[in-house]
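dumping this here before i forget
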Amino acid sequence: MLKKFPEKQVAAAIEELNKVRKSWMKRPDVTACDVGYKIKDNKLTDELAIRVHVKRKLPMEALNAYEAFNISGNQQSLGAFPIDVIEAEYAPDEMLEVVAMEDIDRTSRVNPLVGGISVGNPKITAGTLGAIVFDTGDGEVCLLSNWHVLCGSAPEVAGDPIYQPGVYDGGTAADTVANLKRWALNADMDAAIAHLNGTRSYSRDILGLSPIPGVTNPFLGMNVVKSGRTTQVTYGVIDGLSNSLTLSYPGVGNNTFFNQIHIVPRPPWPAVDYEVSSGGDSGSIWIEEATGKAVGLHFAGETDPAPISENAIANPITKVVQQLKISFTPVYVICPPLIVCLREHYCIPQICLKLVCYKQFCLKELYCIKENLCLKEFSCLVEGMTNPGEPPVIDDNPIIIIRSAKLPQEMRRSVEKMLEEITRFQQSE
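structure:
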């Protein structure tokens, strides 16, 4: 098991790296830099190091003095931390090469939509639908992936169609399942969301894994897992933090990232015939195995096909959810002063969820969930909640939520009983 370092020690190493980060990233031979486990004989050790990633690693004696990675006379350390030079190059994990697929379901038309399947803007080949998420502003159901998967290139256009599967996997305009809604390509992330258009149902499941209950911060030695379009379910360990790297994007040019997460395969090392990521995995969600919580949004991997070079790069998911204003769990947004009033019985604040009127249930008589919460005669029940007209509204025929999974925990049991009554009512008709 890898050693866990105290937060203060990791912070001290990042502080030392910050002194040279900008100058290192300007060097043409440098592809990335971070803080993580020192690598010796292709294995992670229990020593915390400041790491610089280069296109080609040279022996110390072959370097001129000005080429050494230091800011003092010591060419092998910064402060109290050793310098580790790693040979690795990176690129966004879109379709870098043709990859044979073992699980054709991930690249086919999938219904309901779930995380881990092929998706993409028609401008690109194919990436991964990371997860179903919810807009914290309006509760709208969306899919999460990378900027370079859902936008494809600049200029970005809100409303762009998103295919499932991506065009590389046979997707066409008839497979449009969502439309581009919001995106960010900056120092923190390569990320975007698209709102579902209702042509297919959805599930919060991740193919081969479970629904994501929330987010958490990464730490060195954290065991993580992802579900991607190409490599399917893969297991890794976070071996580097505060990673900086520069990648090139269509229509944008170079974009430099800071404070990213570096992931490698789990031991034994070096990896043998094991891909932790590959072209088409972009957009996958890295999940902490112990808690099931999201840690990172996968967006890049190594370009060297040799197994010994296996690496993955992810955006910290806490930044992603903050900037894109999303949640991995359903969102309830109270919108005062709109209320649904059941005449003399009870008033419920309107919950803003996208209305999906594909089925309606109507009650012929008053049904009480509890003593002070009743539904009026002929109230039509649909998924979601809305109210016709402009506020303030008092409606004889309000529309109320019926999906118990979307209700507060304390109300679910009562509503489930109500749904049983509706089912019996329908069967008696």
